[in-house]
Amino acid sequence: MTFFALDFDGVLCDSAAETAASAWKCAWELWSELLETQQIPEEMTDQFLRVRPYLETGWQSVLMLRMLLEKQPLSAFQNELEQNCQRLLQDNGLDTASMIRKFAQSRDQWIRVDLHGWLYSHRFYPGSIAALRKAMEQHEVRILTTKQERFAQLLLQGQGIDFPENKIWGLEAKRPKEDLLEEFIRNGAGDICFVEDRLETLLRAVARPQLARVRLYYALWGYGTEAEKQRAQANPAITCLELAQFNQLLQA
């Protein structure tokens, strides 16, 4: 029996458009004087999709939109995202906890008034739901995500999958994914396959000798940049997967 540890956004679900829309709703509450409309303009969504690869945690998307409104260059997202986020938090009298709360409230409000619209602003990658369902029948499956757990569970329920709440580790856990992988090993997990689209997360796992037995997979269909894909392909500790190979892996 294989033990699958799966990222959510960028591996199972393409949530980039929803993230942009939810972030815009939150930005409207914070800076309505800067925004022309309460609904995110298509061109702003397009701009966000170009910088989405540099997002680490969902709440940062609100501040990334503010950076786009400031006409920040791509390098600011690539190399200075954390510094810019901290600057914007300080300038607006916010902190990480309040930003997380405000972003979640914007999503919750959208879900309350238009659950169907919220669900269908996401796109699950072709074949991923059928493959996940098969894996759950034959193997142990865990989801490790920076999304809040209830949102991931709600999206899976929208696809007809009743994924156990105690098998999702989300933003609330406040734990690096490599720490969770170590915990799985301590708890007796055997053949662990970790699938992730964020290269830095995989590289942190590579750097831990305790995780040498974990099979590390990079999701080429996710949000990574071309440069990151090339780095992943050049790393002998990481196996790069196309979507079709991922679906086959889950169903093997």
**Gross CATH architecture of the largest domain:** 3-Layer(aba) Sandwich
The N- and C-terminal alpha carbons lie at a distance of: 10 Å
| Major beta-sheet overview | 6 strands, parallel
Spans of at least 5 consecutive residues whose pLDDT stays below 50 are none
SSE string, helix = H, strand = E?
Answer: EEHHHHHHHEHEHEHEHEHEH
How helix-rich are the residues, as a percent range? 40-55%
SS-based class: alpha/beta
| Separate helix tally | 13
**Quaternary structure of the protein:** single chain
Rg, nearest Å: 18 Å
The CATH topology label of the largest domain is Rossmann fold
CATH class value of the largest domain: Alpha Beta
> What percent of residues are in strands?
5-15%
Instruction: Kindly report the spatial arrangement of strands forming the biggest sheet.
Output: 5-4-1-6-7-8
DSSP summary, beta strand count? 8
What's the shape? globular
Looking at CATH, the homologous superfamily of the largest domain is HAD superfamily/HAD-like
- How many separate structural domains? 2
Which whole number gives the mean pLDDT? 96
